[in-house]
Amino acid sequence: MDKLTDKLAAELTRLYLAPEALTREALAQHLQGKTTLAIKLTTADNLTRALAIPFRKLAFATEGQHWTRLCEVANALQGELGLPAPAVSIDGASAYYLWLSLETPVPTTRAQDFLAALKQAYFPETDLAPDAATAPVYLPPCLNPRSGKWAAFIHPGMGASFADESGLEMAPPAAGQVAFLEGLDSIGAVQFEAALGKLQQGRGAAPAAALVPAVAPVAAPAVDSVAAAQPVAAPEGLLLKDATLEDIVRFLHSKNIEPTFRHLMPK
Predict the structure, then answer these.
(1) Residue 266 is assigned to a structural domain of this protein
(2) Residue 152 domain-assigned?
(3) How many domains is the chain partitioned into structurally?
(4) Which of 136, 126, 143 lies closest to 16 in space, CA to CA?
(5) C-alpha torsion angle, residues 7, 157, 78, 178 (rounded to 10)
(6) For residues 105 and 128, what is the distance between their CA atoms, to the nearest angstrom?
(7) Which end of the chain lies in a sparser environment, N or C, as judged by fewer CB atoms within 10 Å?
(8) For residue 96, how many other CB atoms are within 10 A of its CB?
(9) 261 falls within a domain
């Protein structure tokens, strides 16, 4: 295993994986696209180490609505419930995910209660499996076995670019994936219980329909897949929905970096 893959595996283990989830060699094969494994985020004694929340396209929904909803939930997790920022990923097909790391694993029933309460408060129209807290997941970065495209962690400011197709044609740079993860914190036990208490008591959560993004969604051009999977610091003080494409470009220019875009030709 090369050094970057080893560092990426270490970050994924720090945030999301139970000690017995899989061997480091098996994880390396998964990250390098040599195989794709459905990985459990639970321990052998039924404790949940992390939560992966899917946001899929809904039939008859407006364009990009699943991305807008993810942004609202991500903002609520931080602003309403006082939790650390979650990771954001694309699944290599048609969905986005929010990833929540738990510093202290919680009983799977407790984790499922948290997801159910979060769904009721912020995304009641979104399907969530009854075993969402225990079901194995395809942990990014990896090849989606159905689409043949790459799932990856992404910068949230680039998320709207993947509303139509949530996959990369080529593997994301390992260094970029590491950079996304190493700045993330896990949810502490006290934070988790406080957030669950707020959700169950109906406090700290506005109805989903009342959550209005601070900035209207931007119709962004398709972004070069390598650029989208590279870390870009959002302007200070901005939550996910506020990081517009213009903000990202302005920041890149401040670093003397010229962003590259690919424009889709009409069929």
Answers:
(1) no
(2) yes
(3) 1
(4) 136
(5) 0
(6) 21
(7) C
(8) 25
(9) no
Nearest to 159 by CA among 248, 252, 89: 89
Question: In whole angstroms, what is the distance from residue 266 CA to residue 259 CA?
Answer: 22
CATH number at residue 205: 3.30.70.3300
Take residue 224 and report the two structure tokens written for it: 């070069």
Question: Can you give the residue range of the structural domain that contains 41?
Answer: 3-254
Give CA separation, 7 vs 14, 118, 210, in Å. 10, 32, 41
Task: Give, for all 267 residues of the chain, the pLDDT tens digit.
Answer: 789 999 999 999 999 999 888 999 999 999 999 999 999 999 999 999 999 999 998 777 777 899 999 999 999 999 999 999 999 999 999 899 999 999 999 999 999 999 999 999 999 988 889 899 999 999 999 999 999 999 999 998 889 889 888 899 999 999 999 999 999 999 999 999 999 999 999 844 444 433 333 333 333 333 344 445 555 444 343 344 445 455 555 554 554 444 443 333 333
CB 42 within 8 A of CB 49: yes
Helices first, then strands: H and E counts in the chain: 8, 7
Quote the CA–CA distance of 249 and 155 in Å, as a whole number.
13
Judge whether 263 lies within some domain. Answer: no
Burial 9-46, CB ≥16 within 10 A → b, else e: bebbbebbbbeebbeeeebbbbbbeeebbebbbbbeee
Distance CA 121, CA 78 (A): 14
Residue of 185, 176, 182 lying closest to 155 (CA atoms): 176
Q: Which two tokens stand for residue 237?
A: 């003080």
Query: Which helix H or strand E contains 88, and what residues bound it?
Result: strand 87-90
On whether the CB atoms of residues 39 and 139 are closer than 8 A, the answer is yes
Sign of CA dihedral 116, 134, 94, 212: positive
